[in-house]
Protein: RCC1-like domain-containing protein
Amino acid sequence: MQSEQLSEQKLYAWGSSECDQFLAKDEDDEELYEVKRPYHLKELSNLSIVQVACGGMHALILTSQGKVYSFGCDDKGVLGRPQVEGQDARLPDLITDLPPVDMIACGSSHSIAANSYGLVYFWGFYANTHGPIGDAVSRPKKVDNITNGIKKILCGQNHTMVLLDNFKLLTWGDAETLVIGRKSETRRSVIQNLNPQPIKMKRPIIDIFTGASHAFVKVLLKDNKPGIYGWGLNNYGQLGIGNQENQQLPCLIEYFENMDIVDMVGGEHHTIALDFKGNVYSFGRNDDGQLGLGEQLNENLRIEAEKQRVLEEELYQQQQVNRKKTSKKNKQGDLFEVQKSQKVIGYEFITTPQMIGNIPKMQSIFASMHYNYAISQQKQIFSWGNGQSYVLGTRNENSQYQPKEVTAIFKNEKLLQISLGASHVIALTSPDQTFQLSMVDQQLIQINFPKSKLKKGQKSNSREMSREKSISMKRSVQKFDDSLIPVKDLRID
Structure:
């Protein structure tokens, strides 16, 4: 059994700290509220860290002993630990009310911790346009009625996704944006949506992805080829289905047919996708360069949108003229109806995936509200999108409309993990280029959650899982080196 020990790791933070996301000080011991370069957080230097996860204004740290530390803005219990007088919530501290876990994820104001044997804990709160939903939970609370093992957990802005080892998906949270796959038609159903419910999919789900208020699944189609389905908010085309219609039920992303997509991440209104060859695709909102397709793109979109507007206006005027003529001659005559064309392209957003050119092949992608990071197969670090609060690592607040290399921000250190908040970034590095990231000690998980508590019949899943791994060519979890375990939690405000 492993023990916590001094590790060759460094934890960094940069971006905005003005909302208590983390504590940083200058050489004169004065507090910093905008941090332009990675700031070393030394409080956990004696621990073996295996995963970092950013929420809107808070963060979680998972160690090899399955322990979880939290820090940041303590909004209605989002840190999962009691407020102690004189204690600075901006400094990492242990969440004592959790058993050992091996997965963590953060949303805007909620957090999830789980282990692979089906134990899930929640704290914080979900919210919709009217405010918080239900009562805030200030300490980890066990999520009931999950009896299967767990493969992956994700958090969106105000929703949670849990992929079970029987290839089913559970969702819960805010239903206003349709991202949990069901509506809230009554006040009672709003509260009921805080309970896990399965997404109805006939095909096995082999991976899950999320943005702020939109979600995706990777499934095996009838021909055993992978397919991508998406649903939720689509007002800027962030689902990539060629229109701006919100989707309550999973909708096939036709662009990705016959393609092996290995990862997808989303911000508030945009999505980034990665295929197994290392190509990166983007779609959705682009007012701050989130799509990484170049600064000229928005001007081209504006011109196209104006042409479309003029065309629709001309068609509408012709419709009115024909309607008047018909009504005078024959009240029952066939009217010449002109339907406004479905908006496929608009100003500062794109509704179908576009490949980002002039970049190296990538292995990992990350997204937050309006910005992104990517790690190349050669371990180069790139960032692009909205640069407010210095989140891009460029030491300025300029937006980047194309991926810009920022590898030098860590000098000669090896990047192990990175997670993006709404306006801050947390990263884990090592000065040892050969350093390998540890895993959570599974003996601790098993001791605290015996296999006998699992749903009977789960062993039969092993054959299906082997088949799934073979079909997906063992690329479901992407790494830019053997020590990287990408964090796909949502990073939003």
Summary: Helices lie at 187-192, 296-329, 442-448, 461-471. Residues 296-329 form the longest helix (34 residues). The longest strand covers residues 131-142. The two ends are 38 Å apart (CA to CA).
